[in-house]
Amino acid sequence: MKASEIRSMDLEKIKSNLLEVREEYMDLRFQAVSGQLTDTSKLRQTRRLIAQYETVLREKELSNETEGEE
């Protein structure tokens, strides 16, 4: 998913997707430890997706704060 696609979402949708992706990452980590994960690149992709969600979420929160100050 591209950052522009994430930016077009509303805050609640971003937060719910972030929780889902974090749960997926936790499952992937468990699979990696137990030796069931065959595609280890999924760990990196999921970690980056979490970072994208968090970055866009923070941008939106900061823009809401600055709009409230004016």
Describe the global form. Answer: elongated
The CATH architecture comes to Orthogonal Bundle
Are there runs of 5+ residues with pLDDT below 50, and where? none
- What number of structural domains do the residues give? 1
Give the structural class: mainly alpha
Write down the overall mean pLDDT. Answer: 92
- The helix fraction, in percent, is over 70%
| Count of individual beta strands | 0
Report the major sheet. none
> Alpha-carbon distance between the termini?
33 Å
Brief descriptors of the model:
single chain; 70 residues; mainly alpha; Helix Hairpins; 83% helix
Task: Describe what you observe in this structure.
The protein is mainly alpha-helical. The protein has a single domain (3-69), classed as Helix Hairpins, CATH 1.10.287. It is built from 3 helices and no strands. The protein has helices at residues 3-7, 11-34, 41-69. Helix 2 (11-34) runs antiparallel to helix 3 (41-69). The chain starts with a helix and ends with a helix.
